[in-house]
Fold these 3 entries.
Entry 1:
Amino acid sequence: MAAAQPGKRRLALVGLGHRGVGMWGRELVADYHPWIELVGLCDSNPLRRERAPATIGIEVPVYAGLGEMLRDTRPDTVIVCVPDDLHDEAIVQALEAGADVITEKPMAVTAAQCRRILDAERRTGRRVDVAFNYRYTPTFAKVKELLLSGAIGELQSVDFHWYLDVQHGADYFRRWHARRDRSGSLFVHKASHHFDLLNWFVQARPAEVFARGELRRYGRRGPFRGQRCRGCEHAARCEFHLDIGQDPWLHGLYEEASRHDGYLRDACVFREEIDIPDTMSACLRYESGVQVSYSLNTYMPIEGYQLALNGLHGRIEVRQHERHPWPQPPADEIHVLPNRGTATRIWVPHGPRGHFGGDAGLQDRLFKPATPDSLGQRAGAEAGAWAALCGVAAMRSVESGRSEPVALGTETD
Ligand SMILES: NC(=O)c1ccc[n+]([C@@H]2O[C@H](COP(=O)([O-])OP(=O)(O)OC[C@H]3O[C@@H](n4cnc5c(N)ncnc54)[C@H](O)[C@@H]3O)[C@@H](O)[C@H]2O)c1
């Protein structure tokens, strides 16, 4: 074990893919080095292991197994950045080794995994933070502030519609995300961000969900298919063709490394094995009576969302387009519309770095000492569980055709 730097929080990172070496590696070391020290890196892929220290810009031991890294480096906190279905195992192992955990979302993909994490947190007395970076995006923080200030009176209902464009949306269908056993479906993987925002805005437990979800554009719906984009005979006529050779970042991180584990970054979006919906909608009811109408689409000409929160005395509207065919404003526009009186328009400037400032806000909160939390943005394992459970219940509803309870369940589930 290397000598500790006094006063610095000792972090170890498991999962050295795009999110791991990017936001939790390179950006963390560059911007937070006065408060943190990365003491170990872990990944199952030998080439990603070999390349990660240089990509991140540090010299640090690398490990193939989490257990060995925990024993050798004795970190204060483990950052979990492996695929979603592996989060629970890594989180519990780290907690049991006496470390706190920061896990990427979704915290887990099943109710049983959520229970296991909550039990381990209680048993060990350590803490799990869930990386719900969208809570820190300035526009969502402003919405929360407006709700807390009583701008529209008691919240009654929410309309929330999220659009992934053909570029970003298709990306989820190229990799492990497209398998329900690995991601829980996009109702869990992607929508856990949105369900968390809803849970945070509504400030009540989600009670039940009725959902629809179908595969309409990708997977078996495709007109043809191959194994992957590289070398595909359909490349010239496929609108989703990805030339990984043209992207040095993806090529360096995944293409050459794929010979070790077969993990293809450009797998065919029309693969037969894809078993998650690409077109989803859900109605949620909260214990407080608040109702939500939600949807998620993955093959749109725009990227972004439309959000409206309806209170007894007014409405807040936000339309945010991350990408669209007209000029992009450098700020988001929020309308606050009282039922009576004058409407106001608020421009919220985007923050620095990823997710319009969400990533930086989350890392400030987690690593800069004495950062205030007046909006309650810090999200723990309970919040992680309830966000994931909304998606789990939504998928159950898709299958049953009935409304399903949002519940942590019991050992017998
Ligand atoms: N909060 C956000 O906005 C946000 C954005 C992107 C990704 N994420 C989350 O970050 C996580 C990682 O996403 P990604 O896009 O980097 O995925 P990825 O597939 O690119 O990377 C995952 C890495 O984990 C490694 N791995 C797999 N099994 C392992 C094991 N048993 N032990 C050690 N390493 C193992 C893989 O080799 C790979 O390097 C996911 O949970 C994802 O949901 C969150």
Entry 2:
Amino acid sequence: MEAVELRVGFVGAGRMAGGLARGLLRAGKVPASNVLASAPSDKNLDAWQESGCRTTHCNLEVLQESTLVFLATKPHILPGVLQEIRPAVGPHHIIVSLAAGVTLQTLQRAGAMVFARGSSAGDREAALLKSLLSSCGLCEEVPESYINIHTGLSGSGVAYVYLFAEALAEGAVKMGMPGGLASRIAAQTLLGAAKIMLETGEHPAKLRGDVCTPGGTTIHALHQLEKGALRATVMNAVEAATNRARDMAED
Ligand SMILES: NC(=O)c1ccc[n+]([C@@H]2O[C@H](COP(=O)([O-])OP(=O)(O)OC[C@H]3O[C@@H](n4cnc5c(N)ncnc54)[C@H](OP(=O)(O)O)[C@@H]3O)[C@@H](O)[C@H]2O)c1
């Protein structure tokens, strides 16, 4: 199946759906005229129309017109939506739930996504989804049990990274550098470190060791971070977000 021939539908047309659709359109994976989004109100649909997508208030129409369907309502709405669309779901459909896993920032920027397949989704469907989502960034297929962990690591993780960037910059402000410049340098530092991690595939502990001159500035700074239990605190944060995602999925 050619990606350009695909008809992609979104049940729910809010932030997550919009971010994903923008990524697919920007990458040219699907023409806007092949994208159909549904929502009860026009609140979000106007923006879809402006980008050339088709819209409807009827969820069933999305199923009737699309092969690949993203379910992008809030989780508490989803059971009712599933009930509503069930009669229209056929074997040709690939249904993807966004109800857990990734934030809008992840979709648009940080670009780390994971998906897990249900029992009737085959290799072809998984490959197609991976090819489409890869246009928005890194995309990996994982066992379903990793989905909540991904939320704790990456979905919520962008916020921990912003907090760290803010702290880095404020340290520089404290030492006399202007805030705007400090923020830009902090962001560039995170970007550079992330690129090197991805490009080399090295364990971060090895990369960290490589930049520590004996008796130098970096090891003095790292000693302070260890005293502040940065590592244990961040591990606790990932655990807390993962557990919260798991609880929300069970609600
Ligand atoms: N786990 C994570 O890391 C994570 C992070 C963020 C989001 N998410 C998931 O992504 C999903 C969407 O979140 P969001 O932030 O995009 O929400 P959102 O911006 O509030 O969008 C929800 C959309 O669903 C529509 N909707 C409401 N009831 C509906 C119904 N009965 N049938 C069809 N559409 C309906 C809304 O319509 P209107 O336009 O009329 O309001 C809106 O377009 C959620 O399940 C959320 O849990 C997961």
Entry 3:
Amino acid sequence: MEKLTRIAFQKTTSFCYGCYKKAPTGVCSICHSDDLMRLLEGVGVEYGTDWVIEHLIDENLDSIDTDEIFESMIDDCYSETVKVGFMELSTVDVMKSQDPIYWDIAKNEYIDGLVDNEELLTFDNGSTYFWRHDVKNYIELNL
Ligand SMILES: [Zn+2]
């Protein structure tokens, strides 16, 4: 987070909203205020860097599909197909259709586990997730 904040500072300029003017030195040259917002060219101007980080991550990294990674984990742990009677069926499809509620609970627990292990990161309280290694690569390329 500290490194992402540094990148967010690099990619933005201090901005005095009162004078509506850039203040790259950190102090407004007109009103001498140091209570400045961050301007991200072409995107917006706002206090703080959290919104900048969120924007940079969204722009540059692919968020992960939690359904997809849970399904591929199930495929890896169990066989991809299962025999029911004389039918060879997709294990994932059978599990999902037999007990969709249990499936969702297990999926959410799996995702929470990845977040606890810091393999997945979220910047918006769990609406979207990113692989930690993708975020790390982005930091390395931009610092
Ligand atoms: Zn000013």
